[in-house]
Design brief:
- This protein is about 15% helix and about 45% strand.
- The protein is built from two helices and eleven strands, in the order E-E-E-E-E-H-E-E-E-E-E-E-H.
- It has helices at about 65-70, 140-154; strands spanning about 10-20, 20-25, 30-35, 50-55, 60-65, 80-85, 90-95, 95-105, 110, 120-130, 130-135.
- A six-stranded mixed beta sheet has the order 8-1-2-11-10-9. A five-stranded mixed beta sheet has the order 3-6-7-5-4.
- The longest helix has 16 residues, at about 140-154.
- The radius of gyration is 17 Å and the shape is globular.
Length: about 150
């Protein structure tokens, strides 16, 4: 008797975006929206990569310059990824949205720490349309931001 095997491949969607000609990704399930950068309300005594607060539907979000945080270069970017409130009230400044990748977990590969001058915020990557795409670890990103705020207060 022949068995019928049906492959149920579990995939996860990632938003692929660019920062300074490099490609990065976040799981789409943590993203609320992508929008154009509007008015930024500056904040005193914050880490350099925190540009201030933006207002999204009467909810304040801390605006993080990912280019400065990851690559130590300020950005002239004008697009923003707003995370879901359940994750944290963060908005991430990016250059542009490139695509949505639908990936099975086995396509993610570990990043060698010596090759990733990305301050520990990236631990995996995948190939997408002949380009490496680095997956940002949102938990690590939030942890680093909180740690930097504590150090800023000291």
């Amino acid at each position: 008797m022949a068995e019928n095997t049906v492959e149920n491949t579990i995939t996860e969607k990632y938003l692929v975006f660019s920062i300074r000609e490099k490609r990065y990704a976040l799981p789409s399930k943590i993203i609320n929206e992508v929008t154009a950068l509007e008015k930024v309300f500056p904040l005193p005594l914050v880490p350099e990569y925190v540009l201030g607060i933006i207002n999204r539907y009467s909810v304040p979000y801390a605006l993080i310059d990912l280019s400065f945080l990851l690559l130590k270069n300020t950005s002239g970017a004008r697009k923003v990824i707003v995370l879901k409130e359940e994750v944290d009230k963060l908005a991430l400044l990016i250059d542009d949205v490139i695509d949505i990748a639908d990936l099975p977990p086995e396509k993610l590969m570990e990043v060698e720490q010596e090759e990733a001058a990305l301050s520990g915020l990236v631990s995996a990557f995948f190939e997408w349309k002949e380009h490496p795409v680095f997956c940002i670890e949102i938990g690590e990103l939030i942890s680093q931001i909180k740690q930097d705020f504590v150090q800023q207060e000291a």
